Amino acid sequence: QVQLVESGGGLVQPGGSLRLSCAASGTIFSIHTMGWYRQAPGKQRELVATITSGGSTDYAESVKGRFTISRDNAKNTVYLQMNSLKPEDTAVYYCRRAYGYWGQGTQVTVSS
Fold it and tell me: 78: which residues sit within 8 A by CB, 6+ positions away?
């Protein structure tokens, strides 16, 4: 069964950085587009960033220039480097594989 496990969340000050990881198993990871989504309390889940098997990336306008998605196919892992964090980035961040496979989420809180 496909499993996606996120890690790296936590509490950071505004302007700080975090690096999230998503480790995949039970899947031929290298051939699939991967994505990061987030969901804040009372809001719908939204797309943050995607990366294709070939390494092409797309970002939500709200995070463009601050976040970077990357992947290491040898480690079956996708990353989200988050810099210049803002309070509005506070959310549970989820990893997704193409065709609707989701991780359990990791909490990111940006607060002073």
Answer: 21, 22, 24, 34, 36, 51, 69, 70, 71, 72, 95
